[in-house]
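Hi all, a correction to my earlier message: I attached the wrong file for DUF4307 domain-containing protein. Here's the right sequence:
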Amino acid sequence: MTATLPEGRYPVSTTRRAVGGRTKNILLVVVLLVGLAVAYLGYLRFSVQDVEGKALSFDLVDDSTISIGFSVTRADPSDDVVCIVRARSRDGSESGRREVLVPGSSAQEVEVTSVVRTSKPPAMGDVYGCSTNVPDYLRAG
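and the right structure:
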């Protein structure tokens, strides 16, 4: 037994509209472009850096001074680098900060020690970050 559908109740044509397919394609292209932009920004943010600083040690000199030892690794050893070292107090707040110029050398990795004055008694010292964008006021002098 075959079922026959009443005429006029169901559409005769089952082809899709061209507008719906076109909208889907445009939306797909937009989503792909946004995905590529996010991937590119992520690559810029998290890719291998030209310079890296690591805290090696710290020594509490007195209630307002800390000595911080750190290493700097550069892709190009001849580049001048600026590193920001900071001191933190027991409550975790930053109590002192200093920009340190690390001049270019023949070694790819160098160790540097810097003294930071603090506004509270220091508890630890670390490297906030390093960059090859050295400000002019650090170069002059």
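Sorry for the mix-up. The CA atoms of residues 36 and 42 lie 10 Å apart.
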